[in-house]
Amino acid sequence: MMEKLHYRLGTFVTLFGNLIYLVLIYFLWKAIYASSGRDLVNGMTLNDTMIYLVLATALFNFLEVFLVWDMSRDIQSGTIILKLLKPMNFRSYSFWSYFGENVMSFFLTFLPTFIIINILTHGSIALGINLLFFIISVVMALIINFSIDMIVATICLYTESTWGLNIVKECIVLLLSGASIPLAFFPESLRSIVQYLPFRCIYDTPLSVLLQKPGYTFGSGLFFSFMLQFAWCVALTGIGCVFWSLSLKKIAVNGG
Questions:
Q1: Is 154 exposed, middle or buried (0-12, 13-18, 19+ CB in 10 A)?
Q2: Helix (H, G, I), strand (E, B), or coil: what is residue 40?
């Protein structure tokens, strides 16, 4: 948390960049709805779409970790050896290190965005038991997102180059999670596949719980989403641990 607060200018620059991004997507989706000639597209109004995308952007800034970039720098500089020699589990250290940043990002980005959106839309987001379910869903989304990043970061031990690898990962996650385009706009055949993938569990599931979309009230739909998130948490954590243990033997860094 102290590290996150230390680089305040970086935080403000990120917020400014996100503001520009939100302006761009507003005019983009306004043009999409205008060209459709309808107020309701795929069951969502322009207001619904903008609330979803604004909160998705805030959630992305809240959950995003830069493990792949940091791992790349550590490998190329040899710093990773110093971390591995310390009497601590590297995966656990990395998770809780980024968890502190996530907590600060929640208060600096997501919470203010949520409050402003709710005020501007005159309380369109319900404030009830859905907030508790949202917190539970976000915690599991954070674990899934970290696990995916850890698996990709581990691949860096083999490639020693991460830029292209990480860009591909980010594009896949942002597209298939619903963070860039709401899943309601996906073709039915693609949406039926995407809804079982781990990427959807990162952004679409928490937002659907928060916004209380159909099927995400307390009942079978919500239970299934939580079970799917939990299953991917366990599966990706297990795969990541095994992959990391096997890949440690492949480390080759400057001077080591």
A1: buried
A2: strand
